[in-house]
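Intended use. Records such as the Adenine DNA glycosylase entry shown here are meant for training and evaluating sequence-to-structure methods. They are not intended to support clinical decisions.
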Amino acid sequence: MGHSTAKLSLDDFPEPEQVVRLRAQLLEWYGRMGRDLPWRRTRDPYAIWISEIMLQQTQVKTVLPYYQRWLIALPTVTDLADADLETVLKLWEGLGYYTRARNLHKTAQAIVKEHGGVFPETARQLQVLPGIGRSTAGAIASSAFGRCEAILDANVRRVLGRLLAVDDPPARAEAKLWEISQRLVDPQAPHNFNQALMDLGATVCTARSPLCLLCPWQADCLGRRSGEPTRFPVRPARTVRSEIAGVSVLIECQGKFLLVRRPERGLLAGLWEFPFVESVGGGEPEETVRMAFGNRLESLERLGQVEHEFTHRHLTAQVLWARWAATLDELPDCIEHREHAWVAPEHWPEYAMPAYVRKICRLQCLQ
Ligand code: SF4
């Protein structure tokens, strides 16, 4: 591949010839090794935007079927703007981080209302829209409109941080990494260059064990030369997950189960779940449930326990089944003012539910 051994550092970065070489090496590698992904075969800003939002925090192989289903159900930005939120959340179900789905919906409506259904072309205009950060804006502007805009997602941050052995504290490194990304992006091929950077991070310069011997930048990379590439860039301190513990109760009445909708804001906003009672003081689950629902719950039975990791929280839910010894119209006091529905198990799939609730559904093959 003819790598030069010229040293690269932030003080002299970028030497114009180094930039030219790095671009050429990366694009040559991408031509051979780049992944063939459906959103790379289109210039439709809507499809590219959907893929970019899905790919935030989620791996390509998980995203692929969701992306395809989404574009069949809602092929244009107007279709998304006109869809009801329930449909949007249902299409998103299982991808996690549901704020992304809600922001897609809001942004589609803003594009239709404020831009006549036509996507803005520059990263600066795109960034104003809900849920579109600087990097996503750069990706859409470069991929859909061929603009010379930089990106800096987690993969790119890692590759560039290692290439230049950036060891500043995370807040300061961020500005440097943006500058490096902006200087490196190839004005002749911004789309391919940015996609190549993402691929390099995803397949070669991986978080735990970078495959430096397969890397087109191995000769210039300061991280590799340090012998400890995984030290770069310095990561923010880990946030400690807080614990949520409680009881999910499957309340049955006439073959139907009570579902309640979570509030429009906060964790898992707008999704449906079985009534969940947080345990305080660590009592027995039956006791916790009786305190919340009173004595119209009968035949309490333990079905098991599920655990789930959210970004900053860990949930442990004991699962109980109970019979509701009243009619469908007489609701437990603690539910009365919440959006709710009595639903037979065969209709549960029609409700957008978070992953931890799906785990509950699978506990006893209730579905
Ligand atoms: S040489 Fe190694 S550490 Fe440097 S960019 Fe390539 S894979 Fe990453």
